[in-house]
Amino acid sequence: MTKTLAIIPARGGSKGLPGKNIRLLNGRPLITWSINQALAAGLDRVVVSTDDDAIATIASDAGADVPFVRPAHLATDAAATEPVMLHALDWYAGRGEVFDAILLL
Question: Least buried of 10, 16, 61, 65, by fewest C-beta within 10 Å?
């Protein structure tokens, strides 16, 4: 059986649309739409990688794992997505959890 991790990167410092991940869309914070779909798909883990306390709280309340705070160097405008994903994978691997597939949302 394939073990799948969904990674949802959501930093707090959006300049184009500040607070976009927690803005309401049809009555719910934007980030919860992705979380709910990933959970409904039955994925093994759904993790939100964030540097923002408000995003972390909303994501956790929606059922996502938020087991770490994304390091500052991975939460800049210039930070690429791949290192953010590797950070999440390394975090889980350091606790003995390895995945066969990764889904980026």
Answer: 16
Bridge-based pairing of strands 101-104 and 4-9 is: parallel
How far apart are the C-alpha atoms of 41 and 11, rounded to whole Å? 24
Question: Of 20, 36, 56, nearest to 105 (Cα)?
Answer: 36
Asked whether the CA dihedral 27, 32, 36, 37 is positive or negative, the reply is positive
Backbone angles phi, psi at 78, to 5 degrees: -90, -10
Q: Contact 13/97 with Cβ under 8 angstroms?
A: no
| pLDDT one-digit tens code per residue, 22-67 | 999 999 999 999 999 999 999 999 999 999 999 999 999 999 999 9
Q: Are 37 and 100 in contact (CB under 8 A)?
A: no
Q: Is 77 exposed, middle or buried (0-12, 13-18, 19+ CB in 10 A)?
A: exposed
Check: CB of residue 99 under 8 Å from CB of residue 7. Answer: no
